[in-house]
Specification:
Layout lengths: L2 H11 L8 E5 L11 E7 L17 E7 L2 E7 L10 H4 L1 H9 L3 E10 L9 E10 L26 H13 L5 E8 L7 H10 L3 E3 L3 H9 L3 E11 L10 H10 L1 H19 L4 H4 L3 H10 L1
Parallel strand pairs: 1-4, 1-5, 5-9, 6-7, 7-8
Antiparallel strand pairs: 2-3, 3-4, 5-8, 6-9
Length: 296
């Protein structure tokens, strides 16, 4: 195994308050979730040996470890992107570290452009599958058998049982949750209207510049993945409005209440489910959600 990966994981083990069960990767403007972690320890990416650092606005670049409604969790507040010039091994480095720390489920989130004309800015979308339009793959090169097989199966990249759990939690908490296919592109320019029409013909519902490499790497490691997109704007050609990253950040602030609540109860459900509880037990009480919303 790459000594940088194992070294980063070992360094973190000595500093985390609890061995984590769940990992969360937060996309652009979605860092508020990390503020609700209890007993938290915050570590800058730059302090972790081998960790790449992000320079994108809306990504704080911190690892937050603690408990979310009692569940040991590690949160990556911000990610690095291929368009920043990082090689693919660096792009997936933080996600792989989550797997090495023992996270058996990782929730990946992102800000995305809506391709489906029925979507609106501010919708949350459960990712059912993805299309890799990066033009590359994080597994290219010599394979490290310690991380997983040379040719990992991707037929259930976003595990069906975890998606069912997410839909049940969203329904119980009365949080509208769209479903769709995410297409990942390398950016950094936004897509043209012609590209969006092509992606729609492929069957894509949303587009973004992240997530896909991490999901491939996590699947290779045998880590269960859940994916949630925040539709922060409609893609080029869907609306007449010019695309601007400021709109992404404004929209994530507008919907952060539902987003944080959904993630919080998802983590609780994942932790309780792992303990062998029944479905009724792991679906959170909507009255707790109401109290949480009132407290905000």
């Amino acid at each position: 195994m790459d000594s940088r990966l194992s070294g980063a994981a070992e360094w973190l083990r000595g500093r985390l308050p609890h061995p984590p069960l769940v990992g969360v990767i937060l996309g652009s403007g979605l860092g508020d979730f990390a503020d609700g972690v209890d007993e938290r320890v915050t570590i800058l990416y730059g302090d972790i040996p081998g960790f790449p650092a992000s320079a994108v606005v809306g990504h704080s670049g911190t690892l937050v470890a603690g408990r979310v409604r009692g569940v040991p969790t590690v949160v990556l507040s911000g990610r690095v992107h291929y368009y920043e010039g990082h090689p693919m091994p660096a792009v997936v480095f933080p996600a792989r570290v989550l797997g090495l720390l023992g996270c058996r489920t990782v929730i990946v989130t992102n800000a995305a452009g809506g391709i489906d004309r029925s979507f609106k800015s501010g919708n949350l979308m459960l990712i059912e599958d993805h299309i890799n339009a990066f033009g590359t793959n994080p597994l290219i090169g010599a394979n490290d058998e310690d991380l997983g097989p040379r040719f990992p199966d991707m037929s259930d990249a976003y595990r069906k049982d975890l998606r069912s759990l997410a839909l049940a939690v969203a329904k119980r908490q009365r949080i509208p949750l769209k479903r769709g296919v995410y297409v990942g592109v390398h950016g950094p320019s936004y897509e043209t209207p012609a590209e969006i029409r092509g992606f729609r013909a492929w069957g894509a519902h949303a587009v973004g510049m992240s997530t896909v490499p991490e999901v491939i790497a996590l699947n290779q490691m045998g880590v269960g993945v859940l994916g949630i997109s925040c539709i922060t704007n409609m893609a080029a050609g869907v609306s007449k409005q010019k695309l601007d990253h400021r709109e992404v950040l404004e929209t994530t602030q507008r919907v952060k209440g539902d987003f944080v609540r959904l993630l919080t109860f998802l983590v609780q459900a994942l932790g309780t489910r792992r303990s062998g509880a029944t479905e009724d037990a792991f679906l959170p009480d909507p009255r707790a959600a109401a109290r949480m919303k009132k407290a905000k």
